[in-house]
Design brief:
Elements lengths: L2 E8 L5 E6 L9 E2 L2 E3 L6 H13 L7 E7 L2 E8 L14 E7 L11 H10 L14 H17 L4 H12 L4 H19 L15 H10 L5 H25 L15 H35 L3 H12 L2 H26 L4 E5 L6 H8 L3 E2 L19 E5 L5
Parallel strand pairs: 1-6
Antiparallel strand pairs: 1-4, 2-3, 2-7, 5-6, 8-9, 8-10
Helix pairs in contact: 3-7, 3-10, 4-5, 4-9, 5-6, 6-8, 7-8, 7-10, 8-9, 8-10
Length: about 400
């Protein structure tokens, strides 16, 4: 070993610290990683740590979590929580300036040639940013949300709710209300097979038990919702595959050449009808609860109809479904790529506003790729999940 250096990455920005040498007999004014030549008896890590501290004037206490060797040079990768955690005071005899660089900008003409040549090896070792895995997520979720909403609205057959919604539309005058009440009672009786239950418009009492019975008995229409969910899975898988391949060390990532690598997507597609049923049954229960509570609260039929309509056409819940199922498939693609490429460990990337559960998962990173033991389970931990998993290479002690 002749020399060693350290690539320090700040997790709050994803940037890497480079130093510019003070021009002299043995150096030129180029940007490079802090580091230098070994002294007698030093290990590679001891050399890198000493040189880094001498050149930056800062104290580095975090351990190395990865690195690589090339032609007598050892490069270590170290994370710090925030750029501001380091009190930089470069030695002006050796270093004229220290600056944080975005990894994608490190191939500039004033960066040391050796470092530019090493970028293909170094960049995959750096922590991927949360946003790297969500470049297309928002656009995809935006596109699928109205489709999910329409499919959810069609899951409960319209014939069950039409009398209720029709009654609300007819409440314009005492005469029209009475006519609508009679029509509602007749339609409901036909659905439930019971004698016409009186609907007291003045007392705001609808045939609650009959309507709930009809609602819970009618078969759900799951085909359109299951089809949309499959579409979400396929799109998320494509995007997850792209992001994971880009994050894997090296530029020749295996693209599912391994046997069985596509099984997770096949399982997702097979599970789509069950997922659709769970979503539709939850919506049906919400409608039934709204109807049951209407009598206790003494609201009129028009108000009840408005509540039911809001449940049927719930854009926020549709977006939650799209976002959560997208996260499920995207995570499955990430893990499939990592396993196919022999990535040893995975790290949890919590979104900027992550909840306590996701932060607890992040705190125990990295985990073995083949059997990660996340304390709160894999992605999605909860609805609206936006975390991701990235490859980790803790191969340097």
């Amino acid at each position: 070993m002749k020399a060693a250096g350290i690539a320090v990455q700040a997790l709050d920005t994803g940037r890497v610290l480079l130093v510019r040498r003070t021009p002299g007999e043995d150096s030129s004014a180029v940007w490079e990683l802090p580091g230098g030549r070994a002294e007698a008896g030093e290990s590679a890590w001891e050399t890198a740590l000493r040189e880094w501290s001498e050149e930056t004037g800062a104290v580095l206490t975090e351990p190395a979590r990865g690195g690589f060797s090339r032609d007598g040079y050892e490069c270590f990768v170290v994370d710090v929580p925030r750029e501001s955690d380091l009190d930089l005071a470069p030695d002006r005899h050796e270093v004229s300036e220290a600056r944080w660089w975005a990894p994608e900008d490190m191939d500039a003409s004033d960066v040391r040639d050796d470092l530019v040549e090493e970028l293909s090896t170094l960049r995959p070792l750096l922590k991927s940013e949360w946003s790297d895995f969500h470049e297309r997520t928002d656009d995809a979720v935006d596109a699928f949300t109205p489709r999910v909403e329409d499919a959810m609205a069609s899951a409960v057959p319209a014939k069950v709710l039409a009398p209720l919604l029709g009654l609300a539309k007819g409440r314009q005058s005492p005469q029209s209300r009475n006519q609508a009440s009679t029509a509602y009672a007749s339609q409901l009786a036909a659905l439930t097979g019971t004698a016409g239950a009186a609907v007291g418009v003045a007392g705001a009492t609808v045939a609650i038990s009959g309507l709930i019975a009809a609602l819970l008995a009618v078969p759900l229409v799951l085909g359109p919702l299951a089809a949309v969910i499959v579409g979400i899975y396929v799109e998320a898988w494509r995007n997850g595959h792209r992001g994971a391949v880009a994050a894997v060390r090296g530029s020749k990532a295996v693209q599912f050449a391994a046997d069985g690598a596509l099984l997770p997507l096949q399982r997702l597609r097979a599970d789509a009808p069950a997922v659709a049923r769970g979503i539709a049954e939850d919506m049906r229960r919400r409608i039934a609860d709204a109807i049951a509570h209407a009598k206790a609260r003494g609201i009129d039929v028009e108000e009840l109809a408005a509540e039911v309509y809001a449940i049927i056409h719930d854009e926020r819940r549709a977006r939650m479904v799209a976002e959560t199922e997208y996260a499920r498939a995207q995570n499955a693609a990430h893990m499939a790529v990592y396993r196919a490429n022999g990535v040893p460990m995975v790290a949890w990337l919590a979104e900027p506003t992550a909840c306590r559960l996701c932060k607890e998962n992040e705190a125990v990173s990295p985990q073995p790729t083949n059997d990660p033991q996340w304390p709160n389970g894999p992605i999605p931990v909860h609805p609206h999940e936006r975390c991701a998993v990235a490859p980790s290479y803790p191969d340097v002690a």
